[in-house]
Amino acid sequence: MIAGIYLRVSTSEQNTDLQKQELLSQATLRGWEAVIYEDFGMSGASTDRPSLDRLLSDAEHKKLGVVMAWKLDRIGRSTQHLAGIVNRLLKCDVGLVVPSQGIDTSEGRCNPASKLQLNVLAAVAEFERDLIRERVKAGMRAAKERGAKFGRATVVTEEQFELAENLVRTCHYITVRSMAQRLNLSIGTAARLKRRIEHGLRDQMPNPA
């Protein structure tokens, strides 16, 4: 079996010698052929990890049978990111071995320590996703209260506006769907445009004496 050993240090002054020695020793004891993937000077939050990307690509293309790391935090930049990586490895039947933390999913087995830690990892990742969603919703509510508008801005050409205005003036019972089809607009855009034109026409009407 070929083991992809992932090594990462946060600064260029550090080195991966300790991680490499321990993981190579573990791979040799199991009779695995080791391939080294190293990222230097990459902080835990960095999204630019070329060696990690290459390792995951090789795993998905069945070039590796197992992935080894010194600790889980060497791989993932966040709990959610780490959970995603673990799921990618599990889906392509590539084992994950982290000796210092008792994690071993190689050769289709998952020991009790692995099950516990991976289940906790998945639960924490889901909790993080829920927190992010709640923060986004709260931010949108606060922004709406301040008058902010959301959604993709739609550009209506001057020609489309003039045609729409003419349709509303001459075809009093024209539907939004029909207007959308004639002007090549989405239903939502046509509805907003129709309301705008109708509102403008009402404002132009003289007040009764």
Q: How does CATH name the architecture of the largest domain?
A: 3-Layer(aba) Sandwich
Let me know the number of strands.
Answer: 5
Number of domains: 2
Strand order of the largest sheet: 2-1-3-4-5
Q: Provide the gyration radius in Å.
A: 29 Å
What features would you describe in this structure?
The chain is an alpha/beta fold. It folds into 2 domains: 2-127, Rossmann fold, CATH 3.40.50.1390; 158-204. Helices cover 53% and strands 11% of the residues. It has 7 helices and 5 strands; from the N terminus they run βαβαβαββαααα. It has helices at residues 17-29, 50-60, 79-91, 112-145, 158-170, 176-183, 187-204, and strands at residues 2-8, 33-39, 66-69, 95-98, 103-104. The chain has a 5-stranded mixed beta sheet with strand order 2-1-3-4-5, with helices on both faces. The chain is elongated and about 85 Å long. The model has no long low-confidence stretch (mean pLDDT 79).
Q: What's the topology here?
A:
Blueprint: E1 2-8, H1 17-29, E2 33-39, H2 50-60, E3 66-69, H3 79-91, E4 95-98, E5 103-104, H4 112-145, H5 158-170, H6 176-183, H7 187-204
Parallel strand pairs: 1-2, 1-3, 3-4
Antiparallel strand pairs: 4-5
Helix pairs in contact: 3-4, 5-7, 6-7
Defining key terms:
single chain, 209 residues, alpha/beta, Rossmann fold, 2 domains, five-stranded mixed β-sheet, 53% helix, elongated
Brief synopsis:
By secondary structure, this protein is α/β, with parallel strands linked by helices. It is built from 7 helices and 5 strands.
